[in-house]
């Protein structure tokens, strides 16, 4: 005779999985590598400050800083190639990628949300699983990471690059690499963290990145277009 777990049944009815373990692992790896790359990169970018000395000490010395930076870069490149393989050669990946393509509705939703926030509009748009927030971050961060990877490879293999490019070109690449990394980090730190964790209704932390599940009531309020499909 089956014994029903009413607490478990209630949780199944209340919470919906929107972020499978597969995505949560990718997110965790990306988060760790970006943080390590940022901190080890800031050591060079702000090398004339006292904060740089503190970071070098935390990283175990200047040589270890370089090892950490390059090792994290390798992990990041591997993750990017894995993501590309998933998008190009798996059915689930292609379906997810289709949902992440920018459409006219994303820009109208963005406009309507601003109007709603300023009390100039009465209706909050019916946001789907991937709204303009996720899509802007996805494409913006990926574009930034591509710039970081390409410029990083040029700087990593400096001897080869010097045989191909003039010195002034490498100097520009160094500036681009450093400040592009800072821009990506700031976008993730301010925009992503606020939208996902610090915004009203999510503070102090949205646990979806850990559990993969979200409360149905929250989903109905924030993503009515997606909740209707569930």
Protein architecture, described:
By secondary structure, the protein is mainly alpha-helical. The protein has a single domain (17-102, 134-227), classed as Transmembrane di-heme cytochromes, Chain C (Fumarate Reductase Cytochrome B subunit, Up-down Bundle), CATH 1.20.950.20. It has twelve helices and two strands, in the order αβαααααααααβαα. A two-stranded antiparallel ribbon has the order 1-2. α2 crosses α9 (167-198), α4 (62-89) packs across α5 and α7 packs antiparallel against α9 (167-198). The radius of gyration is 21 Å and the shape is elongated.
Provide a short characterization of the protein structure.
This protein is mostly helical and 230 residues long.
Q: Strand content of the residues, in percent?
A: under 5%
Please state the average pLDDT score.
Answer: 84
Number of strands: 2
The CATH topology is what? Fumarate Reductase Cytochrome B subunit
The poorly predicted ranges are 1-11
Specify the overall morphology: elongated
* Tally of structural domains: 1
* Distance between the amino and carboxyl termini: 31 Å
**Strand order, biggest sheet?**
1-2
Q: Identify the CATH homologous superfamily.
A: Transmembrane di-heme cytochromes, Chain C
Oligomeric state as shown: single chain
Based on the coordinates given, report the CATH architecture.
Answer: Up-down Bundle
Give the SSE string.
Answer: HEHHHHHHHHHEHH
Task: Quickly give the structural class.
Answer: mainly alpha
CATH class: Mainly Alpha
Task: Please give the radius of gyration in angstroms.
Answer: 21 Å
